[in-house]
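Researcher: Go.
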Amino acid sequence: MKAFFTYFFGQGTEVEFSIFTFAHFAPVALAVAVILLMYRFRRQLKACKYEKSLRCVLAFMLILADMSYYWRLVGMPSLKPGPVENLPIGVCGWAVIFCSFMLVGKIQSLFDISYFWLLSGSLFALITPTPLTYTGPTRFRYYQFWAEHTLGYVAIFYMIFVHGMRPTVRSAVKSYIALAVMAAIAYSVNVMIGEGANYLYMARPEAAPSILDILPPNFTLRLIIMAAAITGMYFLAYLPWHLKDKKAKNQKTLAA
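Model: Structure:
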């Protein structure tokens, strides 16, 4: 039994997970299916007398998914946990925490930040989940990663479909400022810790294949390109709402 837990909660020394395979697409497809079902039954969900309890359960699952990452490190000394790579400085982790409180309290400001962080930053983690390179579907980390990175989307779309939340231009500005603060913290920590620290992938390309491999190693160019890419992603994340508002405005004008 000890050998099983050591294996299950540990990680391998050889590649166990490859991008664009069934192990990659299956959890993403599952999340999409859940989101589509939420849309299909959005009215029933809103009218359900246990709706608040459902939100609390989802919030608990999000916190559990995030915290279990650190519990695993504490329980597995072989993983060599330490501050170099494991400080809570990351868009994905904080988006999960924000989503949890957003669900419980129906807090619009946390929705504003989480919506853009998830659809603009965390999206890259779904495309190239590099942390899973040495932890495939037979490892705990595989399931923890996908739970943490997909349940946030479930939470965001739940609030959109069931409670009618939506982003605004002000939401984008607020979220962008919060991201800039996070980036400043990450940069400072990378400089203070030095070799080995790469929070928000600002210091260097990752060792495992990643969509960020296209970025140059030069810090200034890397920062400029990342900022431009994130700005473009923010624009795309808000575009559907802009088009919806424009369509509604045109229809109102025609009706008048």
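Model: Residues 2-255 form one domain.
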